[in-house]
Amino acid sequence: MVQATPFLLLLSLALVAPGLCARKCVLTGRWANDLGSNMTIWNVDEGGKFSGLYHTAVGGSPNPIQISPLLGFQHCTIKDSQPTFGFTVKWSFSDTITVFTGQCFVDADGKEVLKTMWLWRSRVDNIKDDWKA
């Protein structure tokens, strides 16, 4: 029985491991930022892949703002109960792309908070105009 105990412990850890990250920071759901933009992330699969929609409250396009699709990945291991993630938004109302990278934190009050950085890229007509993209 002593030899079976480590195996059972490893088996139970393997079965519980996918849920460890999810108990602390769950990306699935609706998120809003300080500027009024919001996003909805649908189910995060076992590999960390997710998709959803982003609705920005700010924009420099002359076109009306539209809800835009997003696609991303979450990186989560047993020790990473506050996971890192990244996603790309393909703006539906302009020919620009934004990539976000960040981490989910649980603050002292138990509230989940996403801290992100982003990079926005607009299309230009030629390589000489790359500096303004």
From TrEMBL:
- Signal sequence interval, chain numbering: 1-22
Compartments, as annotated in UniProt: Secreted
Q: What is its main location?
A: secreted
Q: Which cysteines are joined by disulfide bonds?
A: 25-104
Record's PROSITE patterns? AVIDIN_2
Question: Which GO molecular function entries does the Swiss-Prot or TrEMBL record give?
Answer: biotin binding
Q: Which Pfam families match?
A: Avidin (PF01382)
Q: Name one GO cellular component term.
A: extracellular region
Q: Which domain of life is it from?
A: Eukaryota
Q: Which UniProt keywords apply?
A: Biotin, Disulfide bond, Glycoprotein, Secreted, Signal
UniProt family annotation: Belongs to the avidin/streptavidin family.
Q: What does the subunit comment say?
A: Homotetramer.
> What functional role does this protein have?
Forms a strong non-covalent specific complex with biotin.
The entry's protein name is: Avidin
**Lineage from the top down?**
Eukaryota, Metazoa, Chordata, Craniata, Vertebrata
Gene that specifies this protein: Avd_2
